């Protein structure tokens, strides 16, 4: 009931209204019991998926970095052998296949001469170059193998094809799925 001045008397409709609002709030709280925990769990799940995505991206980045590094090493090694062949060009005129090797024989090449400390013939230098170069391939590339072919062209120059295979899976790859790097140069 309301007095003439607009004040409410105790036990009037305002108190009843306040009590019903309080009861209504309690019912809402009972209905929401555990809802905050579910929201937190959903947030943690979304965060976990995001972190797993970042971890996968980092792993892929590291793999691509390794692939780039080994391809660069293969490029440097191939140009090194091409320079060795170019500096010993005279042997190609007498023995065209002096620098040739296959993937199978590249790991079994040996030499008895050390051309850094003693004078060597052109053929001895070719063998020495092959042994040292194959050692570099094996040391710098995981599972590194090499194949070299030289073909005399009609103009008297030589086409040198250098193929290098290496294992990016560190022992898990078969020879059929190893990256194959090819380098070709013409030696006049």
Overview of the molecule:
The chain has 188 residues and is an alpha+beta fold. The protein has one domain. It is 51% helix and 13% strand. The protein is built from four helices and three strands; from the N terminus they run ααααβββ. It has helices at residues 13-31, 35-87, 90-94, 122-140; strands spanning 145-152, 158-165, 180-187. Strands 1-2-3 form a three-stranded antiparallel sheet, with helices on one face. A hairpin with a 5-residue loop joins strand 1 and strand 2. Helix 2 runs antiparallel to helix 4. The termini are far apart.
Overall average pLDDT: 84
Beta-strand fraction estimate: 5-15%
Determine Rg (CA atoms, Å).
Answer: 39 Å
> How would you sum up the major sheet?
3 strands, antiparallel
Biggest sheet strand order reads: 1-2-3
Q: Termini distance?
A: 115 Å
Q: Spans of 5+ residues with little confidence (pLDDT < 50)?
A: none
SS-based class: alpha+beta
Number of helices: 4
Work out the count of structural domains: 1
